[in-house]
Structure formats: structure tokens, C-alpha cells
Design brief:
It is built from 6 helices and 12 strands. Strands 6-3-1-7-8-12-11 form a 7-stranded mixed β-sheet, sandwiched between helices. A 3-stranded mixed β-sheet has the order 2-4-5, with helices on one face. Strand 4 and strand 5 form a beta hairpin. The protein is globular.
Length: about 190
């Protein structure tokens, strides 16, 4: 069996940040389970589409439904090779769930690669696992990263950069998907050649 990845989502997760990494990782041959506390396999979360349209912050529109494939209460960290944490509004409330925070902490303690994007690093700050680490995120998360002992790395002009520090690969928003996922699969041991 190939490597298994867990993707942690919740209602109003950012649409592209949930769907695109899921599809990219499947395309590369990884087994990807999606999970959400309080949702069972076969149930769905609602997503939100965030866009950059020249306002002071992103705009938000209704997205698609995203299928849950794994019961959160049955998750065992040892069954997975890595964790993906998309952004959107889901991390804001998921970080208040002690079981979610403990799961993220266990992935970090097991030294398994963790890919977090946009607001996803809010779960890393809640788990208190980024002290001394360089972490990229949506700018609104910068203060939380600094308060958790991390060093905030701002996005580049196109929001397409991704940063690797130890087991963490982080990025500011969905325009970074190509670099973010490439660096994540490299942390998982894949060698990408063209």
C-alpha cells in the first residue's frame, strides 16, 4: 500500500485549498482520507471560495460540498504519513476543539510532514508546535504565529510562495498550491523529475 495522507477539514474550509490538494495528491498515487470532527464518512462539509479582488481582505462566496471519507474518532496518527490542513474559516473554530489540537500535536510529535496553508497554521499555533519555526500563512494569522513563538514569513507579491521548516510546509493562500504541494511531497520522500 502507498503512503496515506490525512486531510483535516470543517465547514467553510476554503474550497480550492481543500479540493485541489486532495486531487493533486490522489493524482500522485497517495491514499488521501478526509476527516472532520462531528461528521461521518459519506457526509459533506460546505466550502467557501475566497478571492483577492482588490479589497482590503479576501472576498467570500459559497463553494462546493466536500466529502468526508474517514470518521474523526477512529483516526490513528500511526496510520498516516502526513497531514494536510487547508485554510478558510474552518481552522478558526477547529482550533477550539481539544481533540483536533491533540491530533495536530501528535502528528508533530511523530515528526510526520504537515502541510498548512492560509489560515491552516491557526491549528499549528493552537497545538503549540511551531516555536522557533519559520511559518508562512495568510497575513491575518501573522500575530498568532509570532505569539506561538514562530517567525512569520509574509507572502510574496503573488501569494505563490511556500516555506519549509523541519516537518512543516506552509503557504499564504491557494495561489501557492504548486510550490506548496511539491514541497510537501518532497518532505514525504517523493522525488519529482521532469
Amino acid at each position: 500500500m502507498g503512503k496515506r495522507i490525512l486531510e483535516l477539514v470543517g465547514d467553510f474550509v476554503e474550497d480550492c485549498e481543500a479540493m485541489v490538494p486532495y486531487q493533486m495528491l490522489l493524482m500522485l498515487g497517495y491514499q488521501v482520507d478526509t476527516t472532520c470532527p462531528g461528521k461521518k464518512p459519506g457526509e459533506k462539509v460546505k466550502t467557501a471560495i475566497h478571492d483577492f479582488e482588490g479589497d482590503q481582505t479576501y472576498s467570500e462566496k459559497p463553494g462546493h460540498f466536500f466529502m468526508i471519507t474517514k470518521d474523526f474518532d477512529t483516526i490513528k496518527v500511526e496510520d498516516y504519513d502526513g497531514l494536510v490542513i487547508p485554510g478558510g474559516r474552518a481552522p478558526e473554530y477547529l482550533r477550539m476543539n481539544p481533540k483536533v489540537v491533540e491530533l495536530v500535536k501528535k502528528f508533530a510529535e511523530a515528526k510526520k510532514p504537515i502541510a498548512a496553508i492560509c489560515h491552516g497554521p491557526q491549528l499549528l499555533t493552537a497545538a503549540k508546535v511551531i516555536s522557533g519555526k519559520r511559518i508562512c500563512a495568510y497575513p491575518a494569522v501573522a500575530a498568532e504565529i509570532e505569539l506561538a513563538g514562530g517567525t512569520y514569513v509574509p507572502p510574496n507579491e503573488t501569494f505563490s510562495n511556500a516555506v519549509v521548516d523541519d516537518i512543516f510546509v506552509t503557504a499564504p493562500a491557494w495561489p501557492a498550491h504548486p510550490e506548496w504541494i511539491r514541497k510537501f511531497v518532497e518532505l514525504l520522500g517523493a522525488k519529482i523529475e521532469i
